[in-house]
Write a structure and sequence with these properties.
This protein is of the alpha/beta class. It has 10 helices and 14 strands. The model has no long low-confidence stretch (mean pLDDT 93).
């Protein structure tokens, strides 16, 4: 089996590749990434050996290269995207070009290829903002350039359902220690700031709730879709719903002297509560963990220089 992972050098892509490379059924993994975020850690610190894994530096808008890459591929994980925290609004052109039209170009290439399964990592932010719980039957209401572009990408992926199992995974905010860890989302940022500056910044009154999933859980789900009989479709990859204050209070248990500074405390920030797709969570094969246990792993990794 040959697998293509777009965005393979990213936060989720690195951890997914570390799992896929262990599978005896996987003959080759092609990592397709433009390294726009300077994600070199997968080459330096992931422990992934050459052999099964091949790296191709490329853009999603490079139609000719994409067609060459997918011509012998069995399964595609489409993780590549221009990313941001889900509630921000900037760089409309880049989001549109990469997340929307880049996904379109990939889909066009796959429609003329032997690919048998396609997994697209979308975002729960396509639902917009809502204090009431939303699920896969809720009408999307994207409100940022990022979420609009991800939703438009979904619409291209939906075309593949006529040809193969095509999965649209609306993923919550991902957190947890990883080789290519991102720090532009709240939990990872809070843990970094608490660990190294002993201070975190809370925007608004902190009561806003967000939907999250632990890095080990989303990568385990993505890996297990490979051999699952789960039908293609739209699924929500969410494990917990937490308020910002919930997160801060949990981290405060690890760092009791930590300062919590509020910015615009009078403001009520947007929130998003997403109902998880239980049939997706049923694919998990790793032990269930508490939020406290997950944070403790991050803390230990920050304070332990032992390599993976």
């Amino acid at each position: 089996m040959k697998i293509l992972v777009t965005g393979g050098a990213g936060y989720i892509g690195t951890e997914l590749t570390r799992q896929l490379v262990l599978l005896p059924e996987v003959e080759q993994i092609i990592l397709y990434d433009n390294l726009s975020r300077n994600n070199y850690n997968i080459f330096l610190h992931s422990g992934i050996k050459r052999g099964k894994v091949k790296f191709i530096k490329g853009e999603l808008l490079d139609t000719r290269l994409l067609k060459q890459v997918v011509k012998d591929v069995d399964v595609v994980y489409h993780l590549a995207a221009r990313v941001s925290t889900p509630m921000t609004n900037e760089s409309s052109h880049m989001f549109e070009q990469v997340n929307h039209w880049g996904t379109a170009e990939l889909v066009y290439a796959i429609e003329e290829s032997p690919v048998k399964k396609f997994i697209y990592l979308s975002s729960a932010s396509v639902y917009g903002a809502s204090p009431d719980e939303v699920d896969t039957q809720s009408t999307p209401n994207p409100q940022t350039f990022y979420s609009i572009s991800k939703y438009r990408g979904e619409q291209h992926v939906a075309r593949l359902a006529k040809h193969m199992p095509a999965f649209i995974i609306r993923c919550g905010n991902v957190y947890g220690y990883g080789v290519s860890m991102r720090f532009d989302a709240v939990i990872n940022r809070f843990m970094f700031d608490a660990s190294f500056t002993n201070r975190i910044y809370i925007y608004g009154d902190g009561t806003q709730r967000r939907s999250f999933i632990y890095i080990d859980k989303i990568t385990d789900i993505l890996k297990n879709i490979l051999f699952s009989e789960l039908p293609g479709g739209i699924y929500n990859a969410v494990d917990r719903v937490l308020s910002i204050l919930d997160i801060a209070e949990e981290i405060n248990q690890f760092y009791p002297d930590m300062e919590m500074l509020y910015i615009n405390q009078h403001m009520k920030m947007r929130e998003l509560v997403v109902k998880p797709s239980e049939e997706l969570l049923a694919l998990l094969q790793i032990p269930n963990t508490t939020f406290n246990e997950e944070l403790s792993v991050i803390m230990r990794r920050f304070h332990d220089s032992t390599p993976f």
